[in-house]
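Lecture notes, unit on binding sites. The following record was shown on slide 14. It pairs a sequence with alpha-D-glucopyranuronic acid.
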Amino acid sequence: MPDQKPKMVDFDAALHNENYDAEYLIPPVSPDDLFTLADRKCESLDGQWGFAIDPYENGMRKKWFNEITADDAGFPLPMDFDFDAWESIAVPACFNTQQKEFLFYEGMTWYTRRFYFVPDSEKPRVFMRFGGANYECRVWLNRKLIARHLGGSTPFAVEVTDYLQRENRLLVMVSNRRRPENVPALNTDWFNYGGLYRSVGLYRMPKSFIKDLFVRLVPDGEMNKIAVSVKVEGNARDCTVSIPGLGLDLALKLQDGEGECVVPASPELWSPESPKLYSVTARCEADVLSDEVGFKDFRAQAEKVLLNGKRIFLRGISMHEDSADVGKSLRAQDIEKSFAIAKELGCNFIRLAHYPHSDMAARIADRVGLLVWEEVPVYWTILFGNPATYQCAQNQLKELILRDRGRVSVCVWSVGNENPDNDERLEFMKGLIDTCRSLDDTRLVSAACLVNYKKLAMEDRLAEFVDIVGINEYYGWYRHNMEDLPRELANLDIGKPVMISEMGADALAGHHGSRDELFTEECQEYVYERQIEILSKFAFLCGLSPWILCDFRTPRRQNGFQRGWNLKGLVTADRNYKKKAFFTLQKFYHVKAKQSE
Ligand code: GCU
């Protein structure tokens, strides 16, 4: 059926119609449309794209995506867009760091490119996958709106088989406008980078293909059985999974496209000190998928956390996905450098705050040996009573878990950070916790919970429902009286794992003075010394992840030292300079590591 030529836009009506967006608010792509990437061959769409900002949302008002450039009589019209004449911008990248004038831009942007496509009868189904676009994304392929996604840090995929032509026009709207109903909402302490900042690619699949592969140790504490689950698209009835390192060749029978088996096995267990990985290959008819998996047992036992049956203290550090030069669009080498610094600090754990980082992060952590806390940006005040907001948070959580649950380094799913304790929030968070447990029974669930500073005791109903309680405390910085820290800690031994998920102080690198002078390195060093001296006395604590490894951009911070940066980093944003407090924490972690040997 030849395409219907889109109708000419009534330009006068377009000027007066403030409801121009409504018909395009199609339901967001489902997390269930995601597929396990593993070693799948990607036909990359990364590179230079055409780009334009669109603060007045003219592209939606005037329907640029219909590409009408002449009137019904065929006379050319002076349109406000010209896709092939737009300036070019790199994908993946945050548009903010591409040009000075884009740094603080918040609103609609348009990305476009052409690409050629030749079908392959062996792999007739084609999917387009976006690694991450902040915050709302709408995708037109050859003038058809094929996908909409909400959420700035998780991937989404859409089948494009029926929309592809030999020559294709791809047009993507990405808006990083902050909205109260979003997750996160209007107010955060990090930079609102925008755009197509993670890779975009095409994936060709045979008629039947492996959509999801999940291999893990059965979480019963015995550490002698592994579970293998597969989901298959298409009508295949069998799938094989082999793990040569364990001498396993498993044949799974599929029922409605799903298969699972549990087999005895005694794999060498993964740990930060010994990050053992095994190759796994799944085959289903013509589809073959290979990945690297590891096996660990991570559980809570009273106030303790056990890794592979042995108590572990989480020697951590928190991290944002941010860098001075490329913002949120970190490359593998940026992540590897950050993780190498964390290892040098003596860490066995990293808290990837406050949203899902690149999928490269957990893969690199698998390899270098770091346990990983991953989190969805249910941060501070969210519209907890809004069903669409809950749906968006749950979608982001599902996308994160389906993307990363195969990564052995992941040990914690965190459902939020410092949210106000009210009935709506409790219901919202209990729903997210149930979602975690339904998708993955091998990780612990956590959140940074609230403390009543008058009582110096935790006062957060969410604490009952998480496995590990995170406590963010800033004694010595936001709260001057360090003497209250031991009083608060004495009230935190609640019979389940509690960790200090944040503590710290700002210091401008190279700015020196007395330890009482705010924003000096000596002041930050002293806060760490006093914090460590006090925290060391409370043996029930299961971990520590100070705020934060590197300085990071945030428009909220505008005093003479900060100038748009949060300076609580132990290292500068370019990762080239370690402040004095880095060595204070390093000394503590080296002692803790010795104690655990
Ligand atoms: C909070 C919050 C962080 C924030 C930090 C700070 O606890 O979790 O996102 O950046 O404190 O104030 O620096």
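Take-home: The mean pLDDT is 96.
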